[in-house]
Write a structure and sequence with these properties.
Helix content is about 30%, strand content about 25%. By secondary structure, it is of the alpha+beta class. Strand 2 and strand 3 form a beta hairpin. Helix 1 packs antiparallel against helix 4. About 15% of the residues are buried.
Amino acid sequence: MQRVLFIDRMRPEDAPAVARIWTEHDGTGLPERIGVVNRTLYRFHGLYVHMVEARDDLPGDLTERIFAARTDPAFVDTRDRLAAHLEPYLPEFRNLKDTRAEQFYRWQA
């Protein structure tokens, strides 16, 4: 299973609004079309941590599939609504790929 972790900044009090936006987005059908089967959101001392998991048989790279969907109306609407609640971790981050955490170790039993 492919997993992608995105990191941004978020005020803790914005978590309920962000969760509502993602709840509405997840009802659009876009996640299924991309191949997403799980989304988990975390907050940690002013950080927003967003993990996305793909179905096991997903062809291609999950990050690329998400990035390719960036012109879909459901993606655009969600991105625009989240902009009021999320800030890039670093000011120079310009797009979704910039916010992706790099996996450097994994253990699985």
